[in-house]
Amino acid sequence: MSTNTTAAAATGTREWRSRFPTVNYLNADYGIWSWLLTKDHKRIGLLYLISVSFFFAIGGAYAGAIRLELLTPMGDLMQSSTYNKVFTHHGIMMVFFFLIPAIPGVLGNFLIPLMIGAKDMAFPKINLLSWYIFMAGGLITFCALLFGGVDTGWTFYVPYSSNFSNTYVTLAGLGIFINGFSSILTGLNFIVTTHTMRAPGMTWFRLPLFVWSHYATALIMILGTPVIAITILLLALERLSHVGIFDPALGGDPVLFQHMFWFYSHPAVYIMILPSMAVISEVVATHTRKPIFGYSFVAFSSLAIAVFGFLVWGHHLFVSSQSVYAGMIFSMISFVVAIPSAVKVFNWTATMYKGSISYDTPMLYAFAFIGLFLIGGMTGLFLAALGFDIHVHDTYFVVAHFHYVMVGGTVMGYLGGLHNWWPKITGRMYPEGWARFAALVVFVGFNLTFFPQFLLGYMGMPRRYHAYPVGEPMWQVLHVMSTGGATVLGIGLLIPAVYFIWSMRYGRFAPANPWPGTGLEWRTPSPPPTENFLVTPVVTWEAYEYRPIEELQTIGPGEPDQPIDGQHPANRGTETEER
Amino acid sequence: MSTHAEAIEHGHGPEAAHEALAHHFDNLEQQREAGALGMWVFIAQEVMFFGGLFLAYLIYRMKYPTAFMAASNHLNWKIGTFNTAVLITSSLTMALAVWATQTGRSRKTQVGLMAATLLLGFIFLGVKAYEYNEKYVDGLIPIAGWFDPVGHNVHIPAGVTTGQYQMFFWLYFAMTGLHALHMIIGAGILLPIMWMAWRGRFSPEYHSPVENFGLYWHFVDIIWIFLFPLLYLLGAHFGKGH
């Protein structure tokens, strides 16, 4: 804590910077091998940042191709077989190599040890190994796409994928199988780290909600991922031996594949959304300067989502010969998942009530998340209803729904989290004005892309088709809107890519605690030293001990949420000009 | 706490001297706890991994009971029982190896018990290979084009299709194959642990690699305890296949 008091007296950021030790995790060591062989969780987080950005760009390029094809009713850009590959590649890349690893891999790895006051993850070598496994899986799958691709859809349904498809299903499956172990090892590390590495005084109910949510995510990673691994292994063996347990010729049941696939892949959407909720809990508390409303409810709602998430896979099989009674039960449990989800949304909203809300970029993404997740979640309830689901099954309504949850949920949380902790990660501020502008562009572009798809789906436009009837003029209007929105969204995503890279060299130096936040990660220099803390922290305060900004202004800086550079967040208007 | 941490940093603490303590742990106890919990979590994911196969087995066994009973009669329950005994004994020697490191027995005892575990593991795998060969001779390898029990004078009872027969052997090879793969990986992990034991690295203070490997080995053993009755015994009483 002595560092805080010295810093409070500092006036300028340059001066402030000179008061801290100049050696941090970024400049402690140089050279390519100091990165590729690092066991530092912060550097591994950055390795993940680079690799998921790469896979996101590939997945995004395929999304662009899809939207371009659907601009006109005729299939004039590509043939249907090419289109099958394009949407499959988009799905595989985005789901397995961006959405699932993005927040846990980048922000989870970087922040969990910092937030609990540990020097590193419990298993630093396994942490590095999980990145290598991720890269191996990603590159193998990428090779499968380059050699000629896969056309089964990211869901790999048998018997098409096992007995008929003449594409690189086995190789892509191998990549996803290998990638699964990366996810498992990450989850294992999160669980063990949370249990055994907490600093003195950091009790379970003093943990930031970020950690609770990642703990719930890790449970799904541990218990769900092995099931997709064995399923894909069985599929690959079936392709190689030309017979297998899903093969109707032996009396096997292809629907068993769907059960096993969705037993993982439905919980997998909670692997995507829970880390995003983790980010939003932190951002909302920090940027409204209030303790989270109903801490324990938010914490347990994460666990509840993880548990219920395992019991709803059957709602993907309403039209796949599943019994009506099973369908009714799965439908009911799917409605139940809405309860813990709603607890979170209500509690974030209640946290904002009478808070000192700042409109910094992370908070803008939090607003976007809450709004978009509301729409995504509510349409999820439409789809959980048996009758309505049969009407819109396999239409763009479903496509729009899960993009609202995955993009509107995960990507908003990921971007919000990146902005919130960018000062901690790089030691530099991003340009606030540009970032707010980009957040607006992303929000507008996103809604323009995906809202028309709800209408398209309700009108009957099926998913996974490269052409649609010319005789439905409204369909093309909506598709044009969607493609236009995708263009805006693409630009909105490029802007942060540019200014993040720019800020690493030219951004204003970040103080240790720019917002200011109360978590342990804000009580160590930006960027943190290799072992995170100069002395082992001892936690004597509850999570989110925030005071309203008015108190900060009248009483002045003091424990525990003082701005470390001596500036109030309200007075930080000129920051983009300062370099 | 900070004084404790400093003490370790400056090499004054009692644990600071221990070469096995990783830099990011405060003491060996914390390190041991993390390792043990990590192995239990890993085992939890293994249960789910094998769970997919057990699920498939259960579903098809309920669907085709006659075929599965008849097909299971092609497995030799006497050899299976022998192998089960071999594997349980290897678990015993492994448990003794853990005990030997915990109580600080001589490194010869430690390495000897681990070597016995390894040897028994290889005996198990050898017997398994013999059994696989028997299936090959009988034309029971469940690959398209190879599976030909009728051509090898294997009697298939009435009302059972060749496909259902093939399904049983597909599951048999997938389940026992995956189990054998886990044993091979286990043997690969045990070798460096034996080397460490030979170098005298383990003591009552530090023996978590042995302990955690023991957990893994027992887990692989337990998988077999479930596989053996499901594949070899269930149905053996109900009719003679040969």
Query: What amount of the residues of chain B lies in strands?
Result: under 5%
Q: CATH architecture of chain B, please? A: Up-down Bundle
Overall strand count of chain B = 0
Principal-axes geometry of chain A comes out as globular
Number of domains of chain A: 1
Q: Which structural class fits the helix and strand makeup of chain B?
A: mainly alpha
The 3D shape of chain B can be described as: elongated
Classify the helix fraction of chain A into a percent range.
Answer: 55-70%
Regarding quaternary structure, what we see is: heterodimer
Q: Total strand count of chain A, please?
A: 0
- Find the CATH superfamily of chain B: Cytochrome c oxidase, subunit III, four-helix bundle
The CATH class designation of chain B is: Mainly Alpha
Task: Note the total helix count of chain B.
Answer: 7
CATH topology of chain B: Four Helix Bundle (Hemerythrin (Met), subunit A)
Extract low-pLDDT stretches of chain A. Answer: 1-20, 563-579
Number of H- or I-type helical stretches of chain A? 19
| Gyration radius over CA of chain A | 24 Å
Element string of chain A (H = helix, E = strand): HHHHHHHHHHHHHHHHHHH
Explain this structure to me?
With 579 residues, chain A is an all-alpha fold. Chain A has a single domain (2-9, 30-571), classed as Cytochrome c oxidase-like, subunit I domain (Cytochrome C Oxidase, Chain A, Up-down Bundle), CATH 1.20.210. Chain A is 66% helix and 0% strand. Chain A is built from 19 helices and no strands. Chain A has helices spanning 2-8, 13-18, 32-36, 41-69, 80-99, 102-116, 124-147, 160-164, 169-196, 209-241, 254-288, 295-309, 324-352, 361-384, 386-392, 396-426, 432-459, 473-506, 549-555. Chain A starts with a helix and ends in a 24-residue tail after the last helix. The model of chain A is unreliable at 1-20 and 563-579 (pLDDT under 50). Chain B is an all-alpha fold and 242 residues long. Chain B has a single domain (29-233), classed as Cytochrome c oxidase, subunit III, four-helix bundle (Four Helix Bundle (Hemerythrin (Met), subunit A)). In chain B, 71% of the residues lie in helices and 0% in strands. Chain B is built from seven helices and no strands. Chain B has helices at 2-9, 28-63, 65-72, 77-102, 107-137, 162-198, 208-233. In chain B, helix 2 (28-63) runs parallel beside helix 7, helix 3 crosses helix 6 and helix 6 packs antiparallel against helix 7 (208-233). Chain B is elongated. In chain B, 33% of the residues are buried. Residues 1-15 of chain B have low confidence and may be disordered. Chain A binds chain B through residues 118-124, 126, 184, 187-188, 191-193, 195-197, 199-200, 222-227, 229-231, 234, 237, 241-245, 249-253, 256, 260, 531, 535-536, 538, and chain B through 1-2, 4-6, 22-24, 26, 30, 33-34, 37-38, 41-42, 44-46, 48-53, 55-56, 59-60, 63-64, 142-145, 147, 161, 163-164, 166-167, 170-171, 174.
